[in-house]
Amino acid sequence: MRDRQGGTADGAEWRLRAGAKYRPIMVMGTTSGAGKSFLVTALCRILSDEGLKVAPYKAQNMSLNSCATEQGEEIARIQELQARAARTRAEGAMNPILLKPKGDAISQVIVMGRPYRDMDVKEYYGHFVNTEGREILRRSFHKLAAENDIVVIEGAGSPAEINIADGDIANMGAAEIADAACILTVNSEWGGMFAYLVGTIMLLEQQQRARFKGIIINNFRGDPDCLRSGIERVERELGIPVLGVVPHMDLELPNEDSMFIDSKVKEGDGIRIGVVRLPRISNITDFDALTLEESVSVVLVSDPDQLDLIDAIILPGTKNTIVDLNWLEAKGFAGRIRQLAGKVPILGICGGYQMLGQEIVDKKGIEGGSGQKVKGLGLLPVVTTFDAYEKCTAQVEARLASNGARVRGYEIHMGRSEVLQGEPLFLVRDEKGEHPGGAISSDGMVMGTYLHGLFDLPAFRKRFLASMPEKHGHEESASIDTGDRVEASIQKSADIVRANIDMEAVFRILEGGRI
Amino acid sequence: MKAIMFQGTSSDAGKSTMTALLCRHLSERGVKVAPFKAINVTLNAFVTKHGGEIGISQAFQAWAAGIEPEVEMNPIIIKPEGGGRLQYIINGRAQAMSHIKGSEEWKALGLELIQQCKVKLAERYEVVVCEGSGSPVEVNLPNHGLANMDTARIFKAPVILVADIDKGGSFASIFGTYVLYERNERRMLKGFILNRFRGDASVLSKGIEEIENRTSAKCIGVMPFVDVSLPAEDGLSMMDGRHKGSKHLDIRDSWMASLNEIYRVALRSLDFQQITSVLDERL
Predict the structure, then answer these.
(1) Of A107, A293, A508, B194, which has the fewest Cβ atoms less than 10 A away?
(2) Residue B67 to residue B2: CA distance in whole angstroms
(3) Percentage of chain B surpassing pLDDT 90?
(4) pLDDT for the residue B81
(5) Distance from CA of A29 to the nearest CA of B (A)
(6) Model confidence over A375-404: pLDDT tens digits?
(7) Chain pair A-B, CB pairs under 8 angstroms
(8) Smallest Cβ distance to A31: which of B169, B180, B203?
(9) Which residues contact A416 (CB under 8 A, 6 or more apart)?
């Protein structure tokens, strides 16, 4: 057992030293969903526990689940979580390139936390990646390396997508810039893990293969002893040791992109909150916290008929308000939502808020199309205008206008909304003082706000749940801060990795390049 | 009787759907075709006219082929009962396995059962389309051989590998499966399909070419992602309400309609000529 005062129980030297520089370690996956994010989170915490100054890093992330740092830089939520695990402040350099897909193979490209430009696949891979892209990675990585004892890097997708090999700065490109030692990980749940491991390594060039110092098998259900013959085969075939098998665990961590919430609408007790599954739905992590409340379930609604089965409607954030608003009309959602207004509570967040208003004006075609004025659902007295390629990204402290209770969140949006009449939902604090934020209808049944993360603290959760009609005499549940839950999950991840992975071997890998 | 086999680089790669599609395709052309899967591990069983249990996906494939489901299409079902207990359905009937001692005897029984099914199916069908289970190189799983390459050997079926490209790593999974096959198994691999692709398939060509060169298997095609619901071993995926609003009162009609939708896409995306040539290959 490692003794944090500087020695181990048998008196050996404490091997990792704060202030020394260690070789960056990079976790790559055989697929998306392999468990890279989980392992990087765990390693950040483990190395921080060892007394090192750690920074997470993901060169290029494609995600609609982003958040704002304290400086107002936009990065993927998962890197913010990893910064928390590392006990350090999140910054734009930790996720220097963030791609937010807008549909039609176009993404908004965010560089070092600031919106840069929209690009399509051809422009991004054909030009940007090998010119500005690599330069951005060099700058951001070297900044973090200079300011920290170690950088823990997360890959993206698979490093063996041989059809885009030259353009893959997210994996081997980043590994080269960082001169990282690499670990390959696989999610055992889907089967074929040995094929994926062997195939991934064998499709790489010789000098790329040489970077891989270990393999980790993730998410395993059952007795890991029965994997022995497969593990031996892989080790023989690749000459790379399997460092351990991590068992399946249930974690309450914000999901990167997958839909964690139950997509089945069930009859029965409890409060069912329906989130409309917009095609370009963003920040689905906003709803994680609702499930902290007793007997609340959150469902994704893909069909207007399902709206009859739920107790509250949420229009979530979206990458493209106008396109998804047109979709709402075409699918029959818009008509049904208008009918249900006043009968069930309706909340719009960000793009959803914009949709609930009277009108959206996009003279410059920033949201796609050309010079449009689009009618909203007309349920809130709000007009939204897109008039500049400018983005608001900020962390926000606010309080409920009704009772002053604390709300915390962040804004990430293009466009500004003007509330024409009525009471605000929040009072938002900034350097200049407090000003009104959000909107609420006169009967209190329709609400809208730009705040993501608004359910994280109890106050707004209760406010929202209290607006449901009678059936659900909602009891005062204990004030649960998602922050505490997330911290517990980070610690649990670190513990489970320590317990199942050969950490001695990992530390030896880090020390291998001690500067 | 000729045979062909779809194996997957992972679970849920799309082998069941490809099997159903080929059954549909051949049946439409007047070929007497039947599906076959040696082992199903599932709680989703269907009951045949003669009261025997088979996996629901084989029943579905039989309907796609325009025939009645029969137990010889799926001789072994393993049903997890909870607490680590398993129930075995052999040739459609639950049977105690206490008389089978050890993996050698189980393997011998399995080979015997597959061989018997082959003989029975050969009496009435010109083509059998076989479906594998999980990955054929999941070397730690006891039944991976029986369910995959042993079946292919008994039926003398050339193999097409199906990989789910949606999560990435599909080229690696195909090449890795090829590398981990036994040497004499590699030559049975004749083709591969990339399934559930989103986007412009032309970006894949460099990767496809490299895999074709390194495995000598041909790319049969890239299937786009199609959002429909088909019966699967994993029943949960069927509960997502995609049938709402369908005009069909009978779920089977809705399933067939879904299959037809995928089939229309498959005709544009897969080279069925090539599949038929693979079917004709002498191993």
Answers:
(1) A508
(2) 18
(3) 71
(4) 74
(5) 9
(6) 999 999 999 998 777 777 778 889 998 888
(7) 135
(8) B169
(9) A384, A385, A392
Whole-angstrom CA distances from B270 to A477, B25, B158, B275 are 56, 12, 17, 9
A→B interface, C-beta within 8 Å: 29-33, 105, 121, 157-158, 160-165, 190-200, 202-203, 226-230, 233, 237, 263-265, 302-303, 305-306
pLDDT for the residue numbered A96: 97
Asked whether residue A44 carries a pLDDT value surpassing 70, the answer given is: yes
How far is it, in rounded angstroms, from Cα B34 to Cα B70? Answer: 10
Looking at residue A472, its pLDDT comes to 42
The reply to whether A350 belongs to the active site is yes
Phi, psi of B216 (to 5 degrees): 60, 15
Beta-strand relationship, B2-8 and B127-131:
parallel
Task: Name the pTM for this structure.
Answer: 0.81
Give the chain A residue whose CA is nearest to the CA of B208.
Answer: A163
pLDDT value of residue B256: 87
pLDDT exceeds 90 at position B62: yes
Residue A339 Cα to chain centre, angstroms: 34
Distance from CA of A165 to the nearest CA of B (A): 9
Distance, in angstroms, between B208 CA and closest chain A CA? 8
pLDDT band at A199; cut points 50, 70, 90: very high
| pLDDT beyond 90 at A140 | yes
Q: Do A264 and B169 touch (CB under 8 A)?
A: no
Of A67, A182, A350, A474, the catalytic one is A350
Residue A434, amino acid: E
What six digits make up the tokens of A500?
Answer: 């199942």
- Residues contacting A176, CB < 8 A, separation 6+: none
Residues of chain B positioned with their CB less than 8 A from the CB of A199: 169, 171-179
Cα-flanking dihedrals φ and ψ of residue A456, to 5°?
Answer: -60, -40
Token pair 């008039």 in the structure block, residue = A387
pLDDT in tens, A446-503: 999 999 888 888 888 888 888 776 554 344 344 556 677 788 889 999 999 999 999 9
**Chain B residues close to A229, C-beta within 8 Å:** 139-140
* DSSP symbol at B217: P
Give the list of residues 6+ apart from residue B227 with CB closer than 8 angstroms, or none. B242
Coil vs helix vs strand at A97: strand
Decide if A452 is catalytic.
yes
Task: Provide the residue type at B123 as one letter.
Answer: E
Residue with tokens 């045979």: B3
CA A38 → CA A241, A505, B110, distances in Å? Answer: 20, 19, 40
Q: Do B176 and A303 touch (CB under 8 A)?
A: no
Considering only the beta carbons, identify the residue of A190, A197, A228 that sits closest to B10. Answer: A190
Q: Which of A182, A413, A452, A474 is catalytic?
A: A452
What number is the ipTM of this complex? 0.95
For residue A450, give every residue at least 6 positions away whose Cβ sits within 8 Å of its Cβ, in sequence order, or none: A349, A350, A353, A392, A411, A413, A417, A437, A438
Nearest Cα of chain A lies from the Cα of B189 at a distance, in angstroms, of 15
Percent share of chain A, pLDDT over 70 = 89
3-state secondary structure of B256: helix
Confidence of residue A269 (pLDDT cuts 50, 70, 90): low
What residue type is assigned to position A109 of the chain?
V
pLDDT confidence tier of residue B231, bands split at 50, 70 and 90: low
- Among B257, B196, B195, which residue's Cα sits nearest to residue B63? B257
Helix axis angle, A193-202 to A228-238, nearest 10°? 10
Test the B interface: residue of A194, A225, A228, A265 with most B CBs within 10 Å: A194
